[in-house]
What we know:
The protein has 15 helices and no strands. With 450 residues, it is mainly α.
Amino acid sequence: MGNLYNKELRFSNKYLIKLILPLLGEQFFSILVGIVDSIMVASCGEAAISGVSLIDSIYGLFFFLITAFATGGAVVTSQYLGRKDFKNAKGAAKQLIYVSVLFGILMAVIFIPIQKGLMTLIFGHLDQSVLNQSLIYFDYVFLSLPFLCLFSSGSALFRSIGNSKISLQVSILMNILNVTLNAILIYGMNLGVQGAGVATLVSRIVSGVLIIYFLTKKKSKIRIDKIFRIKFNWYLMKKIFAISLPNAVENSVFQFGKIAVQSMVASLGVASIAANVVVGNLCTFANLPGVAISLASTTIIGQCLGAREKEQAKHYTKLLIIISVASISLFAFFLILVRNSIISLYNLSTEASAIASSVSFIVLIMTALLWTFAFATPNILRSAGDVKYTLVCSLISLIVFRISGAYILTQVLSFGLLGIWLAMIVDWICRSSCYLLRLKGDVWLSKKVI
């Protein structure tokens, strides 16, 4: 850090605020709509919300794969921008769009025809009412994947140039449309889970088309022109895949782990499944600012290292971690105070409400203490190209602590839903230790992306 203050910092505080606040707003609206969606679906009964939550756990696998591609493209684009190589930055952006959309189409074509077999394979024997509701929701979610790919990739690219307002504006429109259609289709037309699925599909189509429209405008620094003249650039694709593939493997295994844990939750009964949805939503809301800061780190750290400014990368790493921990702690403390009021909105049974209240209290405290170190710091390492280390740490922690721990605590020791979350907390502790150890050294700063 000795030479850092002899030169001007690359990003001003004003720039950081302009980058992070729209990301915070985008995450807020996205999560808020997710909670509102859950409340609306919950009005259709516990079988409905349980079925939707099971599909969401499967969809999460594909969402994290999409995120892996988007992250890879954004890291490469950010580093080219840091080097002021705008030609390759635009080229990398275009390749990202092609790859991500192709992936979304393939996933829809492959998995929609085998939905029932997939559900049975993953979750085993389910209550018939829960299975029926989940199958209804499955089609709409998977049909929306190509458009979700467009939105996620486009948003990541706008973040890479420091313009997070566009993705915020499109996200707000998408979420307002989603809630409006949910209200009409679920309450007005009594379509239940099918209504929620249609709302999801339509809103994602609109968001995907809009974000690509903005990327093709002349004002964009990474304007994508002649987008329908598809031509793959294997040189740039290789650089994107060098980041994306290890991240995709990490995200895939992580999500498979979540699905394995979700199958253990499913074995605990409908009340625990429903309570787990609420606890998950509260936890997600608490770490909202951390997610925003984690997304911003791709731009900030990526551009610093693209310009070969290692000391600045270290400076912003420390700053982003401090901001993330402080903001998550504020959110978590507030949610602890109002959690019972929020839980009451879900119209759960007395048993499910009691489980959600007790488990969420512990989880929110640990989220404040650990989330940043377990999930924001690895994104900083990925922005530097240090993807193999995060992959190994994630796999070991997931298998040894999250999955094995959840099995022992629920299936052997009968801790119920609390056992699931205790295993996750131990997983967070392991991840945090590994990533902080890496950041203390300089190995991560020596990785080469471009």
